[in-house]
Amino acid sequence: MCWARESGRPCRPTGHRDTGMVGRRALVIDDCEVANEGRRGYRLLYRIGLTPWESRGLPTELVGLAGSGRALELGCGRGKQAIELARCGWQVVGIDFAPEAMAAARERARQAGVSAEFRAGDVTRLAEAGVGTGYDLVYDIKCFHGLAPTLRPAYAAGVAAACRSHGDFILFATEPSRRRRRLGLPPGVSADDVRTVFSADFEWVNTKPAPDVPFGEAVYHFRRR
């Protein structure tokens, strides 16, 4: 689970104007403060076992992928989807900020008898987390859509570095909506913003709606140039 995904506080700038270097520094501080608050909230939920976002199984878009290879899940939480993908024959690495989630994911993988690796780290600093490169598949189930706009370029650069040439990147994200804002959920991300952030290193393959999921979720498929 990404620290920003479905948290009670959207990770976004809180009113600072970008007026020169001072403004930019203030913006980064705001993002970090909100990020830390979101992280603390998620760690508490993991400790008490309240993780409603884990009710989802492996999405059909991943089940339907042909073949197998090396896969990286960003914001993997306690590893439910990563372990299911490993059962399909993939070599899976998952990354999440919460050590509690990573410990639970490793135990789940052991009990399931699958080979999956889980690392605690920041999805916007994949190189520091040591996840490696050359992945055939990188995927994200509603982690990116909660990141502050200032963090998106670092995330995209990390994904590009991790994914092999002509590898696939599949992103699940929700569209912005008033309903999300009223419920205090992350604001989501528009289709235009998604395609802009990843356009430098990825070719857009297609975008599909997920009508059975609340809040207007979309599935974006990109291929590494």
Give the overall silhouette: globular
Strand content: 15-25%
Count of beta strands: 7
Q: Number of helical segments?
A: 8
Overall mean pLDDT score?
Answer: 81
CATH top level is Alpha Beta
Rounded to the nearest angstrom, the distance between the terminal CA atoms is: 27 Å
Flag low-confidence runs: 3-37
- The CATH homologous superfamily: Vaccinia Virus protein VP39
Indicate the structural class.
alpha/beta
Helical amount: 25-40%
CATH architecture: 3-Layer(aba) Sandwich
Tell me what the structure shows.
The protein is of the alpha/beta class. The chain has a single domain, classed as Vaccinia Virus protein VP39 (Rossmann fold, 3-Layer(aba) Sandwich). It has 8 helices and 7 strands. The protein has a 7-stranded mixed beta sheet with strand order 3-2-1-4-5-7-6, sandwiched between helices. Helix 4 links the parallel strand 2 and strand 3. The protein is globular and about 40 Å long. The N terminus is likely disordered.
